[in-house]
Amino acid sequence: MTVLSAAALYTGINILLLFLLSFRVVGSRMQTKVSLGSGGDPDLELRIRAHGNAAEYIPASMLGLIVLALLAVPVWAIHVLGGVFTLGRLLHALGLSATILWARQFGMILSWLGMLGIGAYVVYAALV
Description:
Radius of gyration: 16 Å
Shape: elongated
Number of strands: 0
Structural class: mainly alpha
Order of helices and strands: HHHH
Strand content: under 5%
Helix content: over 70%
């Protein structure tokens, strides 16, 4: 697997996660007949936040992975950073969607570690 295809793998998984979370919001909106906001429905509010949180974190991290790939970092680095971040996003989405507190917390920690690693490595790779 090339470094660019490794970055593409994690980008694709995260895009599919965003799609799934979006699909859940739309399904809930159709069921509750609420087109804007949550209409006070707690399940819809959770689904909106799960999607919104993913949409806030995923784009910048995936851009960072792609930049790292373009800077030709080792493929293992993409797998470690992309894997940690993606596992974090999956756990966080599960934890927030199903109100599983440990999954939400651990998922956020992994997401932050992945983002921190990606950001720091982009700066390092740009300077060397």
